[in-house]
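Structure (tokenized):
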């Protein structure tokens, strides 16, 4: 079943007032980040809750952790998770994705959102709520364990980064006592983030590849800090007006020099490619685990939720899609969860088929036709063009996210997802490096940048170029789409390349609500501060271009 926002909710500031009594979360098999509730409040439980905000919607137990969600006021609790909100904000207004469902999603498809839009409120609330959890832990237990404190500060920094990236000038507080936080400028927020991440780096654990059976699987280490710094520096010109390409490249190199690396091993029988395995139900223990720098843990039977990974697995599939040719009765590896509503725009398909229409074939044949393992799209018995963006019968499917285990084993609860969401993965460092390298070299990669980009394309069995040749910035922008489509990075990428809002010269199908595409207002490069936040906090001022 589809999960929608049906009603509005109380502002995040109001939520901040009651956090001191938050229940803790008990340990699961993957200690200490498991988000199950316990009656005893303890410091590890508070830290668990800080991690849990990324993965599940609340403290429900039993068959569905959405049953007692943190963000109240929605008729559908499955809608209220961070990953799902982040995805909708950062994918639906772009050249990658559409959704034929209602409840505000059509406005996101066409970037016609305003300060009252429910998704803008949801994303803002989930991020500020997560920041509040972190502030609570730091006030209660911040002096007890240097490593855990650094982890919590990283989680807070990541959420502040996402908030700043989307909303620009944002409310800022490092204390539970501030009911109406002051608004910090985007530039000041950027500078705080760089300082914060630099300060915590020495106290984070050394980078170490972990499997799902390791006690510290899912906990961040120095590599996550380096990757977030690289991402910040890559977007520095957008956030501050001053480019930091050399630093973006430097910190990307740190990640590439760490034990983490892209997965290059598919299954021995050739059934699943190395790229596909990154997005499968056993990605925490297959060869793909070495790519997961910050995975959002899913454990069927324990973290059951209609948000997070299940949203992408179920939302992109119909029962007719059979991504596993050896399982004629199968679909996406999750029993009874095919909600089909999410489709790739033709603009995304053209990144893989620039000179022809993508063929009407199953996903396992599409990759062969594209000569790129990343082109995991379903075209069989589907129309290529999206003639009506509100109807499911139009558009191809995305089969990238599946719940099959690469070794053929079964799941504890086949109705929910085991695929750990790759919130940060090593491939990002490769593209950060290549892009920064090109920007430092007049718009084309040096031999070093070409070599790094070739590494990603070799993993996908796509064509490569001699290191004496180069890739242009336009080609790198397309490579971001090919490598990371439907992973929640595209809005930020398009803005960095000056291809989103304003008269950019780049249109895509249904951009601005017109099938042929039209211009999006330039002020849409920053999302609106939710109206409920403006009304509740007199310290906040609306972003230019929006009412209120």
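Design, position by position:
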């Amino acid at each position: 079943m589809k999960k929608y926002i049906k009603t509005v909710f109380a502002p995040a500031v109001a939520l901040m007032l009651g956090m001191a009594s938050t229940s803790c979360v008990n340990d699961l098999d993957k200690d200490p980040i498991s988000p199950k509730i316990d009656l005893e409040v303890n410091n590890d439980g508070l830290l668990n809750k800080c991690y849990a905000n990324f993965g599940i919607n609340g403290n429900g137990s039993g068959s569905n952790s959405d049953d007692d969600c943190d963000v109240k006021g929605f008729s559908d609790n499955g809608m209220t998770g961070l990953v799902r909100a982040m995805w909708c904000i950062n994918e639906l207004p772009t050249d990658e994705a559409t959704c034929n469902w209602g409840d505000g999603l059509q406005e996101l498809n066409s970037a016609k959102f305003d300060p009252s839009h429910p998704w803008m409120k949801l994303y803002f609330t989930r991020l500020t709520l997560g920041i509040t959890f972190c502030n609570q832990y730091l006030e209660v237990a911040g002096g007890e364990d240097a490593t855990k404190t650094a982890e919590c500060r990283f989680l807070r920094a990541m959420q502040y980064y996402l908030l700043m990236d989307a909303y620009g000038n944002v409310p800022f507080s490092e204390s539970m006592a501030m009911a109406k936080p002051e608004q910090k400028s985007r530039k000041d927020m950027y500078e705080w983030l760089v300082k914060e991440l630099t300060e915590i780096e020495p106290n984070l654990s050394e980078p170490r590849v972990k499997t799902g059976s390791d006690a510290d699987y899912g906990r961040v280490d120095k590599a996550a800090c380096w990757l977030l710094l690289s991402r910040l520096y890559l977007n520095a010109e957008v956030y501050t007006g001053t480019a930091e390409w050399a630093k973006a490249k430097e910190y990307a190199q740190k990640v590439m020099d760490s034990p983490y690396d892209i997965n290059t091993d598919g299954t021995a029988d050739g059934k699943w490619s190395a790229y596909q395995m990154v997005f499968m139900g056993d990605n925490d223990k297959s060869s793909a685990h070495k790519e997961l720098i910050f995975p959002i843990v899913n454990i069927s039977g324990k973290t059951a939720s209609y948000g997070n990974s299940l949203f992408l697995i179920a939302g992109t599939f119909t029962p007719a899609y059979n991504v596993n040719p050896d399982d004629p009765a199968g679909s996406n590896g999750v029993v009874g969860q095919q909600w089909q509503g999410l489709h790739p725009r033709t603009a995304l398909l053209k990144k893989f088929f620039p000179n022809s229409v993508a063929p009407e074939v199953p996903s396992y044949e599409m990759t062969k036709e594209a000569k790129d393992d990343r082109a995991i799209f379903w075209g069989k018995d589907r129309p290529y063009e999206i003639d009506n963006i509100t109807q499911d019968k139009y558009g191809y499917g995305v089969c990238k996210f599946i719940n099959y285990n690469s070794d053929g084993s079964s799941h504890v609860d086949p109705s929910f997802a085991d695929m750990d969401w790759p919130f940060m993965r090593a491939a990002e460092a490769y593209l950060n490096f290549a892009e920064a390298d090109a920007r430092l070299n007049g718009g084309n990669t040096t031999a070093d940048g070409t070599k790094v980009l070739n590494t990603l394309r070799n993993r996908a069995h796509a064509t490569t170029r001699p290191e004496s040749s180069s890739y242009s910035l336009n080609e790198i922008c397309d490579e971001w789409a090919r490598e990371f489509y439907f992973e929640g990075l595209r809005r930020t990428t398009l803005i960095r390349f000056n291809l989103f809002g304003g008269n950019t010269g780049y249109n895509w199908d249904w951009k601005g609500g017109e099938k042929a595409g039209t211009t999006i207002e330039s002020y849409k490069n920053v999302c609106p501060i939710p109206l409920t936040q403006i009304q509740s906090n007199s310290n906040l001022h609306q972003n230019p271009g929006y009412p209120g």
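Reviewer-requested clarification: The beta strands are 25-26, 36-37, 97-99, 170-172, 182-184, 292-296, 342-344, 377-378, 397-398, 421-425. Residues 10 and 73 are 7 Å apart (CA to CA).
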